[in-house]
Write a structure and sequence with these properties.
The protein has about 260 residues and is α/β, with parallel strands linked by helices. It contains eleven helices and eight strands. An eight-stranded mixed β-sheet has the order 3-4-2-5-1-6-7-8, with helices on both faces. The chain binds adenosine-5'-diphosphate (ADP) and magnesium ion (MG).
Length: about 260
């Protein structure tokens, strides 16, 4: 059975795209078959990382212009991965983005049905082990569709008040009603705020109390990630980088959570 993960956040810039793409690459490097889908139709970014010639987009798939397999691009050979990594891109032209903004609720309900059936197809036809959605921040239909299709949600937050307060509200307002199992991942934590030694345990407990969610980890803000964002996949080019190593730990915690479902 394919396991679906959505990487979501309240605000933009928390690191969803970097995290979802690197998690997908790490799973594929371990030998799993992975589909990474860009469901951030408002600000598509995954195409920047993979620099692949795009045949069909996920917009084409949702518009019933092609099947899900026609919108996936196998990039595993390029990165010499043990497993397969298939990537689905969102249409990145201004017209495509604008077009997606005009969709009504009925269209989005149909898009949800197509997304749910794609999940089953990817498990059956491509023998996918993991399906990972990158999403738009906050409450947008495409994100809700990705969340509703997922078995587990990785909720990413920075540690400033804007993010934390919005994240709290979203946990009550959306996640509780969707009933999706969710874990909290703190990212881009400045060195000044980064807890050392026993402080990490304290932070973990404080976060678990505040959000009432399992804690998936805390990732510092790395200047080189900031500077090289979107240039390449850190987990592939720099597997020893602490960002890559921390995401490998996140994978272990996510898998523990998935096992408990
Ligand atoms: N741990 C990190 N340390 C430093 N910069 C990061 C980290 N994670 C992500 N970034 C950078 O933050 C910016 C936003 O990341 P991105 O993945 O595009 O976030 P989102 O998809 O949530 O908008 C990018 O410049 C990215 O390189
Ligand atoms: Mg993004």
């Amino acid at each position: 059975m394919v396991k679906a993960l959505a990487v979501h956040s309240y605000k933009g810039g928390t690191g969803k795209t970097s995290i979802s793409a690197n998690l997908a690459a790490l799973y594929a490097a371990q030998g799993y078959n992975v589909c990474l889908l860009d469901y951030d139709f408002k600000a598509p970014s995954i195409q920047v990382l993979f620099k692949t010639k795009i045949r069909n987009t996920l917009n084409d798939f949702l518009e019933e212009k092609c099947e899900i397999s026609d919108a996936l691009h196998d990039v595993s050979k390029k990165y010499q991965m043990k497993g397969r990594l298939y990537v689905g891109f969102a249409g990145a032209s201004t017209d495509s983005m604008r077009e997606m903004m005009t969709k009504d609720r009925r269209w989005e309900m149909k898009a949800l049905q197509r997304t749910l059936s794609a999940k089953n197809k990817l498990g059956d036809e491509l023998r996918a082990d993991y399906l990972i959605f990158d999403t738009s921040p906050g409450v947008s239909y495409s994100s809700i569709n990705a969340l509703a299709t997922s078995d587990f949600v990785i909720l990413v937050s920075k540690m400033d008040e804007f993010d934390m307060e919005g994240t709290k509200e979203m946990v009550h307002g959306i996640y509780d009603s969707l009933g999706r199992k969710t874990g909290l991942l703190l990212n881009r934590i400045p060195t000044e705020q980064f807890p050392l030694g026993a402080g990490q345990k304290e932070l973990e407990e404080a976060m678990a109390r505040t959000f009432n969610l399992p804690f998936l980890g805390v990732i510092p803000c790395y200047c080189d990630i900031q500077v090289n964002g979107g240039k390449y996949l850190f987990s592939v080019e720099q597997p020893k980088h602490p960002f890559s190593q921390e995401l490998s730990e996140v994978i272990k915690r996510v898998d523990q959570q998935l096992k408990a479902i």
